[in-house]
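In response to the reviewer comment on reproducibility (Comment 2.3), we provide here a single inverse folding case reported in full, input and output, so that an independent group could reproduce the run without further information from us. The structure tokens appear first.
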């Protein structure tokens, strides 16, 4: 689970223990700050926001009291995650067992186990728990002693992710360091490095960070700065448990990368990772689309429309309006122009369901069907049947999508379709760069279309001028780019089929007669 938003911690328990005021040891405000930083980290969304009801605090306890009993009771209630963190002075007794200190813990080894919490007692509390994953983080001197005799925290394996993970700020007989008070916001070195790494994230790392991702970064940072080298012990499969979201900014795609490789990587992330990876996914598709990759353009249309996000979250896509609708239309149009086979179907759906423009929906469904799209054939047949029966198209929601009646007259789907169509057409005509580009654009389209359909002495020549005008209008509807007119014309003729031009014109006229006339505010068809 890499998307930590909404993670359920109701079956998990975290115990935070820290001591900074002592009778026999030096007081340390750095320990106090580190304790509170770890607490804030667990409660932060970066870790999925542990609820306070799942976090037990043993903060600066003056004496041991019932600490051991409370620890057992807390971990017995955990069936998912059991997490333990300690920061403070660590000492060892005459049997070289690690002891976690409280306020009145005695330095004299004869009294250590009577006045402090043995890590063996922490281990026993872990063993009493049925939690699948057990995590212990020790920031104290001699922390490495936690791995000595009977070092396991768990003897049971509970799939799919189970086991234990022990992080230690120092080796068995090495002290841990903390910053002196002359350092601003002084903390212990280990906890500062751990919390900072999690909060900043790991560039190039996965969307969800495990302790196996975090530990090497923390260890390298501490060793490079001359601090004690931390240690770890991993049991079973606990290394796979995701502790935090990766906050590091995603690395953009490399310039000049292979478009097909970018597409495959983006699609892999789309199907395997959580919604938090969408910016990286989009960047990959955009890089591939900039290189002319048609399927990537189609995916960008689906992202603009909200389809990709809905699939990643396992929900139904919501309505799309306004700028998002226009962006989706533009991407699908570019994808169609670049040869994508799915884009015409998506355009048909937009024009039918969002714009309420049946004429344009019929055009795109027909085009998609001629490219072999079976889903488009069903949509085309269904829309034609509804038109014959006098059943209207799907009613588009007013722009803005609030579902409430606006104070002013709503912007209708037809008005929106007209605006979007006019915008696309203006951008298309801009390729001809003339003060009055439309006649030049139509002339160029007519020339390439005549050649593609056999010329004046081929199939094109048998059409009447009116039939030729109908075909030209149909050909320019998807706004073929000037640089690719010849290819678009050949594709168009292939989709109609040699010898089928006149029959195609008849279908166009029949549909035009069946579809109710567009209202004046629709604007020009694209």
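Designed residues, in position order:
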């Amino acid at each position: 689970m890499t998307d930590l938003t909404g993670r359920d911690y109701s079956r998990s328990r975290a115990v935070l223990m820290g001591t900074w005021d002592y009778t026999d040891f030096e007081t340390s405000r750095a320990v106090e700050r580190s304790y509170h930083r770890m607490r804030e980290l667990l409660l932060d969304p970066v870790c999925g926001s542990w609820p306070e009801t799942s976090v037990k605090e043993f903060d600066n306890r003056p004496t041991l009291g019932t600490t051991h009993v409370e620890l057992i009771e807390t971990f017995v209630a955990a069936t998912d995650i059991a997490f333990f963190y300690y920061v403070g002075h660590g000492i060892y007794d005459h049997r070289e067992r690690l002891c976690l200190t409280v306020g009145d813990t005695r330095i004299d080894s004869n009294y250590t186990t009577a006045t402090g919490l043995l890590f063996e007692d922490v281990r026993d509390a872990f063993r009493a728990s049925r939690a699948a994953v057990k995590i212990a983080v020790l920031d104290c001197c001699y922390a490495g002693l936690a791995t000595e005799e009977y070092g396991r925290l768990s003897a049971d394996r509970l799939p799919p992710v189970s086991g234990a993970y022990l992080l230690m700020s120092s080796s068995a007989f090495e002290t841990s360091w903390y910053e002196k008070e002359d350092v601003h916001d002084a903390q212990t070195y280990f906890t500062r490095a751990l919390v900072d790494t999690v909060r900043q994230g790991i560039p190039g790392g996965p969307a969800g960070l495990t302790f196996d991702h975090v530990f090497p970064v923390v260890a390298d940072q501490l060793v490079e700065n001359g601090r004690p080298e931390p240690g770890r012990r991993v049991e079973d499969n606990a290394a796979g448990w995701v502790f935090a979201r990766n906050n590091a900014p995603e690395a953009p795609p490399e310039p000049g990368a292979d478009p097909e490789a970018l597409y495959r990587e983006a699609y892999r992330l789309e199907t395997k990772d959580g919604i938090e990876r969408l910016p990286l996914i989009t960047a990959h598709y955009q890089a591939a689309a900039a290189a002319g990759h048609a399927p990537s353009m189609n995916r960008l249309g689906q992202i603009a429309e909200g389809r990709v996000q809905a699939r990643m979250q396992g929900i139904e896509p919501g309505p799309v309006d306004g700028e998002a609708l226009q962006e989706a239309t533009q991407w699908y149009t570019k994808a169609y122009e670049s040869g994508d086979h799915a884009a015409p179907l998506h355009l048909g759906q937009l024009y039918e369901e969002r714009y309420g423009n049946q004429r344009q929906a019929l055009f795109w469904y027909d085009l998609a069907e001629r490219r072999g799209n079976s889903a488009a054939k069903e949509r085309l047949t269904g829309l034609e049947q509804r038109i014959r029966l006098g059943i209207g198209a799907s009613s588009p929601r007013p722009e803005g999508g609030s579902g409430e009646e606006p104070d002013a007259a709503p912007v209708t789907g037809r008005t929106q379709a007209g605006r979007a169509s006019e915008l696309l057409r203006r951008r298309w005509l801009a390729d001809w760069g003339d003060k009055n580009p439309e006649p030049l654009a139509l002339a160029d389209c007519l020339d390439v279309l005549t050649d593609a359909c056999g010329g004046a002495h081929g199939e094109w020549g048998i059409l009447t001028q009116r039939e030729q005008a109908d075909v030209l209008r149909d050909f320019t509807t998807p706004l073929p780019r000037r640089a690719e007119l010849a290819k678009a014309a050949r594709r168009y003729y292939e989709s109609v089929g040699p010898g089928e031009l006149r029959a195609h014109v008849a279908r166009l006229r029949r549909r035009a007669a069946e579809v109710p006339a567009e209202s004046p505010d629709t604007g020009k068809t694209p």
